Amino acid sequence: MKNKLGKQTLLFRQKPRIIGAYSIVGEKEGKGPMAQWFDTILDDDTYGEKTWEKSESKMLKQSLLIALQKSGKNKEDIDTVLSGDLINQLMSSSFMARDLALPFIGLYGACSTMAESLVLGSVLVDGGYAQNILAGASSHYCTAERQFRNPLEHGNQRPPSAQWTATASGAMVVSAKDKGDSVVAMGQEAKEIYVTHATIGKIIDTGIKDVNQMGAAMAPAAVDTIMRHFSDTGKKPDDYDIILTGDLGLIGKEIAVDLLKGANMDVTSVYDDCGAMLFDKNQDTHSGGSGCGCSAAIFAGYVYKQMRTGKIKNALLLSTGALLSTISPQQGESIPGIAHAVAVTTEGGGN
Amino acid sequence: MKNKLGKQTLLFRQKPRIIGAYSIVGEKEGKGPMAQWFDTILDDDTYGEKTWEKSESKMLKQSLLIALQKSGKNKEDIDTVLSGDLINQLMSSSFMARDLALPFIGLYGACSTMAESLVLGSVLVDGGYAQNILAGASSHYCTAERQFRNPLEHGNQRPPSAQWTATASGAMVVSAKDKGDSVVAMGQEAKEIYVTHATIGKIIDTGIKDVNQMGAAMAPAAVDTIMRHFSDTGKKPDDYDIILTGDLGLIGKEIAVDLLKGANMDVTSVYDDCGAMLFDKNQDTHSGGSGCGCSAAIFAGYVYKQMRTGKIKNALLLSTGALLSTISPQQGESIPGIAHAVAVTTEGGGN
After folding, report:
1. Among residues 179-208 of chain B, which lie with CB inside 8 Å of chain A?
2. What is the CATH number of domain B196-345?
3. Class of A1-351 per CATH?
């Protein structure tokens, strides 16, 4: 296979470019330490809608449309939209895609969706099956609580290991190499961002059954994909300025670091986790953020902007998902974890 | 774009081959007119499991593993598994993928999933990102009724327009061109089956709000994708021996034929629908079959076997999905429909 490295890593020789991105978060997320990096912070998490599901779908639609606008492309230039969310039957994505009226691929990877959509979108562009794709993901605290845990009105207590589903969405436009057009869109100073590799993850399930221990359930999958990425590509952690998982949270992040150390891989100087970054400890979210929107907004906000200005040159982005269902724990099942990785760079656009 | 035709159609120049397939259905499906084409018919829809979800997941896992075995490949040869189902959070697929321990992409397209997984799997193989992929989908009458409608124990009546979610699963192995290996697996007489084109569908929502009118809700999306496929490729209906939607059911099939006639396209001589084919009228399923497994089992059973023996040379397979959620109708929303198409042929393996 000409575009595959090792067992699980895809190689994008045509270097598809991320030419536009947009992030939107809720009120609480907008008071956290990452606030400055998001394009829009809602002052009302209903976003003017009558149901939380419609609020989330509107955030996602907004993300895709403004990412598109920022890319300098038009709707007619988009070949395929790839998107997913946490709501049953992808309600946010399906109704967004109905309104956009573009070819649509629905994805479910729980919180791994942003990387999953970027991986497949990059494949379509790199392989010459699309000129431009839109990739996005969303989550909303109020839709997720109602669906996965308890309606907010119950006022349930949350254990210290619980994570807080982010009210957030992020989207990116991935485009085939087409010299000249991005200068118009971004100004001459902005760096081009290329997607170079993707590592498709396997499900790892270490037997954790506590649904309030998502970070612990997903950390081994993140570690497996990180290790596989390095063994497939021959790269080392310090080839990246940042390795970002999303969203193991504070507890899962520590577990991931420990597991990697046990495998003789020290990533501490470049490693962080979107769930750990999103909220401040005094915001009372316990183990940090989660949800498809968490890594989506941090990739499309923080990482994208830091790469555009040259502050980050090489990044490895992993979205992590807990692939349990609302009824699988009741049937005695443990929590399957998965992580997909995408490598992006501002260097080597020459070839 | 070198591998794109018109607005929505992908062109697979490397002609990825379908080298193995397997189908499994429940007891009722095994008494219908398509029974002879399925590899396995269950005599007990629990499949020996304690919950319906685990029964469905076991059917899906079995499908993928036996399709793999029939292809002559080993688990180690598979680069990526692409799969989806109707259960919330893709419970059948996630637990199947956990047991397979292979790189996994989860898809949600409601009943359009089999085509969705074949499209993306063919892209990975055609683009050189995978040597072999496994694509599959499943559904189960008892999991779907509990989740989308009412627990079976309620004994609810069903309106004449309702469809019967198939207890069924199908899977296929798509492989890069590698002359010689399929002869071993299939015997010299078997025809090679190539995937040549895919048309990624847009969501079409004509405002239907009756959740017992899924066929009517999906028919315009199927028609849109069929029309788009022909306009993108320049082909005509009689370039195909069979055009198969799945699963509009008896009512949706008639609507699709009418809409196509209205657009001056007569497909009647080659057209059928998996939902309309699966059950006999005297089986009391009303408008026919539905569910991801319906088109999956008919593609992987009937179509695959008829192509292997040369009875069908060119087929256009469309899986159709109704992308409503369990709560979207309660929020006043109509039903978004989608259809993805895959063109397969036994001819033209020469290039």
Report:
1. 200-203, 205
2. 3.40.47.40
3. alpha beta
